[in-house]
Amino acid sequence: MHSRGRLCHIFVAVLVAVTAAVYWPVGGYGFINFGRPPYVTENWHVQGGLTWNGFIWAMTTMSECNWHPLTWLSHMADCQLFGPGPGRPDGAAAAAVLLVITALVIRARLRPDWPLAMGNAAWVMATASDERLRDGPEAVRLAERACRLTGGTDANLLATLAVAYAEAGRFPEAVEAARRALDLARPRRKNELVELLPKWLQLFRSGPAYHEPPLPEPAGSPRTRP
Fold first, then answer.
1. Total number of domains in the chain
2. Do residues 205 and 166 touch, judged by C-beta distance below 8 A?
3. Which partner from 95, 123, 136, 141 sits 20 to 30 angstroms from 33, CA to CA?
4. Whole-model pTM?
């Protein structure tokens, strides 16, 4: 485990060094007149740097026909730290920081003992409207492991385990898992689960598994044309 951690740190360090070497000359470049005026040079929200009013504007505006608050906030941070002009060293720094964050996130997501990821995968394999995506036994395996890792105290994971059991045809176990999930959900005021689980219990007692409803066909598609 320690050797894996060292390899990850070395890999991230190499990525940062290479990225910095590639992007560092950008600090000496000027602006090009393509998209910069509305984004930086003629945008007083951005040139004002990081402010509360600027944050509200970034989160709510559809300027330039897009909703991309992180883009606006990153430009605001550039102006706050380096000023509104060109020649800022933030290109290399931002790219290197994003690489580090991405590497750490990927490392965390690839952990084999991450209950949330296993629960999400189990849910899809158990409830997908497309039967080609469903795999009851694998959903049960993932959901059981997620519940073991959390000590059987997560109502959402127990509910996922219930639908996984049902998809695998193990309805008595599905009923028991749904009951346990409901017992946990009620005192914790998980209202959505409290509303859904009694319906699932009734469903599992009569036999069929729970599947998500299919997505509606887009308007104008061959199936929706008169």
1. 2
2. no
3. 95
4. 0.53
Query: Is there a domain that residue 32 lies in?
Result: yes
For 182, the 3-state DSSP assignment is helix
Tokens 């559809």 found at: 62
Read off φ and ψ for residue 217, nearest 5 degrees.
-70, 140
| Angstrom distance (rounded) from CA 46 to CA 74 | 9
Give residue 138's identity as a one-letter amino acid code: E
Q: What is the per-residue pLDDT across 44-81, written as a single tens digit (0 to 9) for each?
A: 788 888 888 888 888 887 766 677 788 888 778 878 87
User: Dihedrals φ, ψ of 84, to 5°?
Assistant: -85, -5
pLDDT of residue 128: 86
Q: What confidence tens digit (pLDDT) does each residue in 133-144 have?
A: 889 999 999 899
Instruction: Tell me the C-alpha to C-alpha distance, in Å, between residue 95 and each of 19, 69, 109, 165.
Output: 7, 18, 21, 45
Q: Is residue 216 part of a domain?
A: no
